[in-house]
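User: hey, got a sec? need ATP-binding protein folded
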Amino acid sequence: MEQMEFVNRKQELNTLKSEYEAERSSLVIIYGRRRVGKTRLIHEFIKDKDAFMFMATEESEKENRMSFKSALADHLDHPLLREVQDLSWEAMFKELVRSIDDKKKIVVIDEFQYIGKNNKAFPSIFQKIWDTILASKNIMVILCGSVISMMKEQTLDYSSPLYGRRTAQIVVKQINFEHYKEFYPEEEQVDLIKKYALTGGVPKYIETLREFKTFEEKLNEIIQNKNSYLHEEPYYLLSKEVPDIGTYFSVLKTIALGKVKPSEISTQLELKVANLVHYFKVLRDMDMLVRETPVTEKNPEKSKKVIYRITDNFVAFWFKYVYPHRLYIETGQSEEIAALALDKIVEEHVSYVYEMIAREYVIRNWYKLTGRRYGKIGKWWDKNEEIDIAAIDEVENRILLGECKYKESAVGLKEYKDLVRKSSLVKWGEAGRKEEYVLFSKSGFSEALEELARTDENLTLIRLN
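Assistant: Yep! Here you go:
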């Protein structure tokens, strides 16, 4: 399969470029969940530079050391180094720095955490190598890893021997929908939204499913092809981070199926909320969950108005349509499950993803669109009502409220009046606050609503098409 084009990552590349051009040594930590494109980012950065790259494995520390020696001998074209039976890490890095000339040398250790996993002393060993061999040289070291908890423990936490040595750190996230069209330049926006609901912004998933042209073909591949890695992907993602995935799976399934408040999850799983806190934290650290509170909360960290959202569209889809029906899929009824998913996915999944896309649009484009900025952007809800988009500007005493409608019919005055009604329920700001409204629609707007928007500067209509 031809390699997929490299999309976006401008901020990450600029950080790496800045570290490379700095007149000092650099130690850059790159981490993020699996499949998100960390290694591809590094390859894109080093492709025209003097770089040595090594990928660690889950083998023993000695096996990794021997593989490092072999790879280094090839890189340096060093026959004697090939013949030596064993060398310490210190000796190999001393040999490596001898090859440095006026041009900065780049050294990459990918999946760095595996070496430290198999030898707890390795972060201390590498700290000594950095302090005594590398820090004073014209070198840029990149330590990259996918097991987020281990990378933080070994390189970023206060207790790590490497704490304070890094000169930059990059958390690689999913590609935003804003850049998704670069993967499918010929696609209409409506089709892009549906495909994004399956793949999210994870480059590996996009690459795997791109050969299937239609949305239906992509959905069928996930549900029906038991030989595809996607069929078992969440098992793989969780098993690399946690020893026992059972409760984590239960939490993710419960959230995917619509029970998003801690109390609802607690009731469903028959576990006390206090006993679920650890699972929420681990899943947040893995970038699989995000904790949300109403944007109007003054102290969100202490707020009890909490919901959890799965950050990965593919994982959310899998826990909605694959995991709960795995018995039927395994017993040859995958076509029926695929048909069921296809029938419900727009209402249950795509429309929800559309809300996230619309909120992202506001974050990235509202100032360019209106000249107004908002300090906090999210959503709002109480016991009985919710508003898809809510943003506040405390300096100007201004609030933005919006709804997203992913349906076949046009949005009209009824939806606008309902949004205005709900705005009176939002207790925020001082008397006389400024209010503006935004409506997102898949299928456009009624003539009456468009006429109103032409005369009301506080009403914006957006069709993401």
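Quick note: The longest strand covers residues 386-393. Let me know if you need anything else on ATP-binding protein.
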